[in-house]
Amino acid sequence: MFRLRTLLLAMAIAFVVPLVHASEIKTGGMPPVGLNSAPAAIITFDFSIESPSGSSPATSPCDLFQGTIETVSPQCFFQNDISVNGGGETLTMLTFDALGISSNSVTCGFLSGSPFTHCGVTSIPDGAAISFYGGTIPFGGDFTLDFTGFPKDYTFGGTATASPEPGTLGLMMIGLLAAALVARRRMLAAESRR
Q1: CB of 59 within 8 A of CB of 53?
Q2: Most Cβ neighbours (<10 Å): which of 127, 143, 164, 181?
Q3: Are residues 74 and 155 in the same domain?
Q4: How far apart are CA 173 and CA 135, in angstroms?
Q5: What DSSP character marks residue 105?
Q6: 131 and 49, same structural domain?
Q7: Cα–Cα distance between 25 and 91 in angstroms, integer?
Q8: pTM, entire model
C-alpha cells in the first residue's frame, strides 16, 4: 500500500511540476521570418515592454515604452540604439522585472541566434527578475523577444546593462599601473632610509 501511494504521489508531482512553469521569456538574434518592418529602437537603459495578449509576438505585438515615447513592434523585434555622450553602448545584460509573478512560475530560454548564452530567474520583492547575460548586443545590433503565457496587458520593467567603453577600461588600467608604480617607489624609498 505504501509503494502504491508513493508511486501515485510521484506521478502527480511529475504531471503537475511542468504545469507550474507556464510563463516564459526567450531572446533571439534573428529577425522574424517575413518581417517587413524596422526594429523598434531602444534608446534608454530603463524601459517597459507590454504584451497585450500575454503571448507576444504569437498573438499580439510588443508595445515598447521609454518615458513618454511609445513604439509598437509587431514582431517584438528591437535594436540597441542606446547612446551616451555621443558614443554607442554595447549591452551585456537584459533584465525584465515581472511584478506579481512568482519566480517559480516563469522560465527563460533562447531563440535562434540569441546574443546571450545564459539566463536566470530570481525572486525579487513582489515578483521575479528574468536576466539574459553571457553575450553582447552591440550598438545598432538587433534582437528579438518572445513572451508566452503571461496575463493579458502585462507590462515588464526592462533594464539594459552596458559594458564600460574600451577607452574607459584603458584609462582605468593606466591609473592602476601608475598607482602601483608610485606605491612601489615609496616602499623602496622607505627601505633605503633604514
Answers
A1: yes
A2: 143
A3: yes
A4: 23
A5: G
A6: yes
A7: 18
A8: 0.74
pLDDT (tens, 9 = 90+) of the chain, 194 residues, equals 555 555 444 444 444 444 444 799 999 987 767 766 789 999 999 999 999 999 999 999 999 999 999 999 999 999 999 999 888 999 999 999 999 999 999 999 999 999 999 999 999 999 999 999 999 999 999 999 999 999 999 999 999 999 865 555 555 566 666 667 766 777 777 777 77
Are 122 and 175 within one domain?
A: no
The DSSP string of 16-75 is HHHHH--EEEEEE-SPPTT--SPPEEE-SSEEEEEESSSSBTTTS-EEEEETTEEEEETT
**Contact in structure between 19 and 58 (CB atoms under 8 Å):** no
Q: Which residues have C-beta within 8 Å of that of residue 163, sequence separation ≥ 6?
A: 89, 90, 91, 92, 136
* Domain count within the chain: 2
CA 64-97-132 angle, 5° bins:
85
Answer yes or no: do 103 and 180 share one domain: no
Q: Report yes or no on 7 lying in a domain.
A: no
Range of the domain at 173: 166-194
DSSP, collapsed to helix, strand or coil, labels residue 179 as helix
Q: Kindly state whether residues 119 and 157 are assigned to the same domain.
A: yes
Which one-letter amino acid corresponds to residue 113? G
The closest alpha carbon to 163, from 101, 63, 56, 90, belongs to: 90
